[in-house]
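Researcher: Next entry in the queue.
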Amino acid sequence: MIREDKLDDRNGFKGYSSMGNYEELMAAAARLQGGEAGGLFEVRQLPKKALLLREGEIADTLYLIRKGCLRLFFYDSKGRDITFQFFFEGESVASFDSMHQGSPSLFSLESLEPSEVVAIRKKGFLWTS
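Model: Structure for this entry, 129 residues:
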């Protein structure tokens, strides 16, 4: 059973989301690839089961999925691994609440197969609050 507190918007469920404007994000990443990025983003080749974010860590990266599949998961009170959501090519994922607020992530993020992602570091974002 999925813990209800994991699903509540106030507790970070909205922090992970697929963004509908993938093409614009990829175009921006491509423009930065010529060295203007200053280390704010990189293309990463991931093996199967690569852990990108561990539950409890503070997120600092947005991932644009070029190839492969990632899963969002957490461990329930009995220590069972609960897959909560899948992300596929053309989608993006991040723990936005964790990145913005500097709070621990409620979820872990892992590749399910060999994947390629564009990783954009938090330093690349302008936060307004």
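Model: The chain has three helices and eight strands.
Researcher: Noted, moving on.
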